[in-house]
Design goal:
317 residues, alpha/beta, 9 helices, 26% helix, 27% strand, globular
């Protein structure tokens, strides 16, 4: 079957490790696993990190990349794949598709049958394929960890990336006052069209916020602390600019702030996200849809940092 996979590890030039070609059909590791015919998938920075060898040792190569997918199961049902797989051999107790088990950038993927979530009819395969990683992470950051129901205002750092852009769209749809930062003036203009107040990094906000969505790390964390209202939640799921920020602990205890880590989400949270998108008419922001054979171009755009929203592979093109 066709597959997009890591052929080797290249820390300095991850795109050089990418291949598109034929690989064997998926194996079923257990009787409760099933095969899905993939109709669409979407890229995440996790895929670039895999090409660099983060979470993917050389002895597992070649490895089919991809965490996100929507497709059709053996019974003909339209489904969305929940990509977090139990993995006792991993220190986390779990792994994500494309770490130990082959990922979604292929004609077919094997997953536990319980990880197949019904796709709402109102969402296209391309839209649904954007949700299981970046959008699920943003949804959990806002709801379960950030307790958005108790908040009136949100700051999203580094809008333009998959998680941050999803957080903006979801928070606006739920009626919150949303502020979003980006270094790129063009991305700030795009963020404003989504309903957020767009700001340059480090800019003073009109108010202190109840929830901060932090995926940038060292470059923005001090601003996140200064922008937080008393009792606010700063929810962290990434550190693209560095993982060792200076933290003023006086502000943490004086303002009684909560700094919360999170990653991905549960299958039930994915169901909740799909329902929210369906009932509220929320749709993922898609930068570009590529045909399956155009995967190298999609990876190149992801690597460039120029994308605004999700990059999708259409497996039927």
């Amino acid at each position: 079957m066709r597959a997009v996979y890591a052929s080797t590890i290249d820390v300095d030039d991850p795109l050089a490790a990418l291949r598109v070609g034929e690989l064997p059909e998926p194996d079923l590791p257990a009787s409760d696993w099933a095969v899905v015919e993939v109709r669409a998938s979407s890229l995440n920075h996790h895929d670039l990190w895999s090409l660099r060898g983060v979470g993917l040792p050389a002895d597992r190569l070649p490895m089919i990349l991809g965490c996100d997918a929507a497709g059709v199961d053996a019974a003909g049902n339209d489904v969305v794949v929940y990509p977090v797989v139990p993995d006792p051999a991993d220190p986390r107790g779990m792994s994500i598709l494309s770490e130990r088990y082959p990922g979604t950038f292929a004609d077919r993927v094997a997953v536990p049958r319980s990880h197949l979530v019904p796709k709402p009819a109102g969402l296209s395969f391309a839209e649904a394929a954007c949700l299981p990683t970046a959008w699920l992470t943003a949804y959990r950051m806002l709801t379960t960890r950030g307790r958005l129901d108790q908040a009136g205002s949100v700051l999203v750092q580094g809008a333009g990336g998959g998680v941050a852009t999803a957080a903006v769209v979801i928070a606006v749809a739920l009626g919150k006052r949303v502020y979003a930062t980006s270094r790129d003036p063009a991305k700030r203009e795009r963020v404003a069209t989504l309903g957020a107040t767009s700001l340059a990094p480090g800019a003073r906000l009109p108010e202190r916020v109840d929830v901060v969505i932090e995926t940038v790390g060292a470059a923005t964390f001090d601003h996140s602390l200064k922008s937080a209202a008393p009792g606010a939640r700063i929810v962290v799921s990434g550190a693209t600019s560095g993982h060792l920020p200076a933290v003023d602990l006086r502000r943490v205890f004086a303002m009684q702030l909560e700094i919360l880590g999170t990653s991905m989400g549960t299958a039930d949270e994915l169901r909740g996200l799909l329902q929210l998108c369906d009932t509220r008419g929320i749709r993922p922001v898609v930068d570009t849809v590529y045909g399956f054979g155009e995967a190298p171009a999609a990876f190149a755009r992801l690597h460039s940092g120029d994308a605004f929203g999700k990059l999708v592979l259409d497996h039927q093109r």
